[in-house]
Amino acid sequence: MKIKRILVLLLAFMLVFSNSTFAATGSLSKNASSKKSEIVNNKQKFMGNENDEKYNDDEKVRVIVEVEGNPAITYATEKGKKFSSLAESQKTDLQEKALKTQQNVKENIANKKVKVEYEQSFTTVFNGFSGIVEYGDSKRIEKLPGVTSVTVATEYERPIVEPEMKYSKELVQAQRTWDEYGYDGEGMVVGVIDTGIDPTHKDMVLTDPSKAKLTEEKVASGNYPGKFFTDKIPYGYNYMDESYEIRDIGPEASMHGMHVSGTVGANGDEDNGGIKGVAPEAQLLALKVFGNDPQMGSTWGDIYIKAIDDAIQMGADALNMSLGSTAAFVDSDSPEQQAVKRAVENGVIMSISAGNSAHLGNGHWNPYVTNPDIGVVGAPGVSHDSLQVASLENEFIDLEALTYGYGEEKGKAGYLSAGNIHPFDLEQNTFQLLDAGLGSVEDFEGKNFNGKFALIQRGEYAFTEKTLNAQAAGAAGAIIYNNTDGIVNMATEDTINIPQMFMLKSDGVLLAEQLENDSEVTITFGDETVKIQNPTAGQMSDFTSWGLTPDLDFKPEITAPGGNILSTLQDDQYGVMSGTSMAAPHVAGGSALVLQRVDEAFNLDHRARVEMAKNLLMNTSEVVNDKGYAQSVLEQDNPYSPRRQGAGLMQLHSAIKTPVVVTEKQTGEAKVALKEVGDQFSMTLEAKNLTDEAVSYDLAANVQTDFAFNGVLGNAFLSGELDKLEAQEVVGAKVNLNNGKETVEVPANGSVTVDVQVDLSEAKVFSEPGADPVKPEEIFTNGYFVEGYVTLTDSDDVNPS
Questions:
Q1: Distance (Å, rounded) from C-alpha 533 to C-alpha 397?
Q2: Are residues 446 and 416 in the same domain?
Q3: Please, what is the Cα angle at 523 between 518 and 526, to 5 degrees?
Q4: Segment 328-357 mean pLDDT
Q5: Final residue of a domain: which of 533, 566, 598?
Q6: Straight-line distance from the first to the last Cα atom of the chain, in angstroms, rounded to the nearest whole number
Q7: Is the pLDDT of residue 230 over 70?
Q8: Are strands 453-457 and 477-481 parallel, antiparallel or unpaired?
Q9: What is the structure's pLDDT at 108?
Q10: Are residues 599 and 747 both part of a single domain?
């Protein structure tokens, strides 16, 4: 079977007031501009008064003070240079100039008798400092000469992901890119802003240190707070604790940063149990922004600005930030988002996770059709300049396994352990298994669970309630098996002091059937592991946060594997984690490979370097089709919403190989966000050929919107499942591509434009299977998203599409 090579352009045809994508608005569009202005003004008022309502004047707050004068990176950008390439004397002069301005402001603060506990000082991507001060005094500081702004620092919660890649890198074509093009991250530097890295892990090595960009001498020559560790980890610092302890240690250590780092660039021996990340020969900067104090479970915006500051000075090519705050505002003046913008302007790709909050109202009920704006993507990823990443489920899962037996039959079943007690912590390793139904108190009555494991089906009661009921009944442990496909990282709590484990539906049903037939079932815990096909492989992860941003920009922009990812942990260990935190490092590592091509072929720098890499990645991503229930009953085959997957699943080999890049003509970006539209609208795309040979493409486009049933988005009433938000085709939508021509030829080293015209005047959507479609306005009374993809498929099936 031939695999089509497709170039993708992400389209957002948008809504009236909300985070949108193409939104058809009907009669509402007539007053859209005035209403939108009112909303924006109210939002600005809210943001301006927000802190006055939140803090008392005598309350201590952490603030970031921006002073007058450009940061040092601006000079380098204006001169067309990377900051790291400036002479050391120039760097020093620029930084001292910034520090002098800051010192003048600090003296003015002292003269006003304002007490400040100073924390960080920034000179590279931001000119200013941070400190702790009474809120009332922060308003006095903002009025002083030389001060541009004072911002209360954002607090970011520590990522909490318990360990659960061998397989994920094949999904993004990393191995093929190494083998066919030799791009493996060599000579590239990726900064990991996270909970820390164990530099002694056996997989954290370089094959040839002589090819590395950063040496011990180079790091030592800079004015950095951290130090050199190894050739693979040439720099590390604990910015929160202000120490050299860059590992994630302590009773609550998640090793999140170590897992992320392994996905970016582990370089282990896979034939002997090691792991390779996406860019195995890249160097990694251990930029630890979460401390090791178990009482301090968060970090601050000024901490990670300082980490960005140092990474830029050292010449990082990409930065990974698997952290953020949910449903954030887009504020181009915020220090954090300014830092992202300036890093990009100096040629650094910022790969940032979208977040794990799914959508507005997640966990309660599906959103109502009256509020189609369900986006909750987080900051700082909402910054226009970031490359924000959504999560797809991995193909396979490596799990610890128990051995079960009944009669003469034996087998293995994988499991995930939750909580603080592992089966290995118990004095014995073999136990009898008893069925406990759904895990209610009544399900344990009349049976002797003392010293035995309880087998419990998921559903009706919380995971913790089921486990605590088993514990109260004297069970040695609780195994909860799924009632649907997939694997779940269960919630737990400190009062649980028995092993709490999660098992696949297929294994749980098998064991439950044997118990129902009065078979005696035993389970044994040993060193066994099992590789299983992920039941939700290839689907968008349930947790991945939907866009758009509050200013109607497209986020997330790309997807990578993030569900059930195996990667490195500290002390030469490995584990499985899930989250968009696991997806972003695939893109950070992938960006390093694509930047190798950009640097080799195009001689671009600064923003142009980043935009070329970003467009190549987005253009060649594989659009992921929705696999939900509504697709089958409607007999449709729509992609997941662009607001959920962005351009699609990253395909590195295709990004390296493609001869053509396609963008919106005005913005030069591989996405189009039209925001507010009526029944007819248009856009112009530009296809540029980067090679010496002409290329022909077949043109196609789809138009889709959200599926809604009984007043809510998704198929909750239809399938009985919550949170299954799906797409449907906009029936009757007319798309005219390239003035009716079905193909386009892009000349060698030339470019062509492609006009796209969309007519929704006869658009209809389904409100339920079997019924006739109706006008969208009958269902979506407050407007609706219209979205889709324009695809260019190579007529000869040779080049990526």
A1: 6
A2: yes
A3: 170
A4: 87
A5: 533
A6: 16
A7: yes
A8: parallel
A9: 96
A10: yes
Distance, CA of 183 to CA of 592 (rounded, Å): 9
560 in the same domain as 488: no
A 10 A CB-CB count for 303 gives 23
Q: Is residue 1 part of a domain?
A: no
CA distances in angstroms from 396 to 80, 367, 558, 563, 774, listed in the order given: 45, 31, 21, 10, 41
Please say if the pLDDT value at position 55 is more than 80. Answer: yes
Structure tokens at 747: 């000349």
Whether 29 has a pLDDT exceeding 60, the answer reads no
Chain-centre distance for alpha carbon 173: 19
Q: Say if residues 259 and 569 touch (Cβ distance below 8 Å).
A: yes
Given a cut of 50, whether residue 163 has pLDDT beyond it is: no
The 10s digit of each residue's pLDDT in 584-620 is 999 999 999 999 999 999 999 999 999 999 999 999 9
Give the C-alpha separation, 431 to 644, whole Å. Answer: 44
Judged on CB neighbours under 10 Å (0-12, 13-18, 19+), 165 is: buried
Please list, in sequence order, all residues whose beta carbon lies within 8 angstroms of the beta carbon of residue 782, skipping any fewer than 6 positions away. Answer: 16, 17, 28, 370, 371, 372
pTM value is: 0.81
List pLDDT tens digits, range 723-740. 578 899 999 999 999 999
Query: What's the number of CA atoms in the CB half-sphere (13 Å) around residue 452?
Result: 17
Note the Cα 37 to chain centre separation in Å: 31
| Together in a domain, 485 and 341 | no
Q: Is residue 26 part of a domain?
A: no
- Asked if residue 488 and residue 414 are part of one domain, the reply reads yes
pLDDT at 38: 33
In angstroms, rounded to a whole number, what is the distance separating the alpha carbons of residues 321 and 641?
24
Determine phi and psi for 391, rounding to 5 degrees: -115, 135
Contact (Cβ atoms closer than 8 angstroms) between residue 343 and residue 83: no
SS3 286: strand
Phi first, then psi, for residue 46 (nearest 5°) are: -60, -45
Structure tokens that stand for 550 in this block: 């509050």
Tokens of 156: 């970011």
**Sequence-separated (6 or more) residues with CB below 8 Å from residue 444:** 436, 454, 469, 470, 472, 473, 475
Token readout for 536 is 């939700």
pLDDT at 148: 95
**Residues spanned by the domain of 415:** 396-533
- Give me the chain's average pLDDT, please: 87
DSSP string, 40-91: HHHHHHHHHHHHHHH--TTSEEEEEEEESS--HHHHHHHTT--GGGS-HHHH
Q: What is the model's pLDDT at position 52? A: 66
Place of tokens 């930065």: 319
- Nearest-5° Cα angle at 20, 15 to 25: 10
Q: How many residues does the chain have?
A: 801
What confidence score (pLDDT) does residue 142 get?
Answer: 95
If one compares 460 and 752, the residue with the highest pLDDT of the two is 752
Question: What is the model's pLDDT at position 47?
Answer: 37
Q: Which residue has the tokens 């913008």?
A: 341
Statement to judge: residues 516 and 575 lie in one domain: no
690 and 27 Cβ atoms separated by less than 8 Å: no
d(CA 556, CA 547): 6
Q: Are 785 and 20 in contact (CB under 8 A)?
A: yes
Domain stop point among 508, 533, 558: 533
Is pLDDT larger for residue 113 or for residue 161?
A: 113
C-alpha distance from residue 190 to each of 179, 322, 749 (Å): 21, 13, 32
* pLDDT tens readout for residues 629-642: 888 888 898 999 99
CA distance linking residue 753 with residue 619, whole number of Å = 16
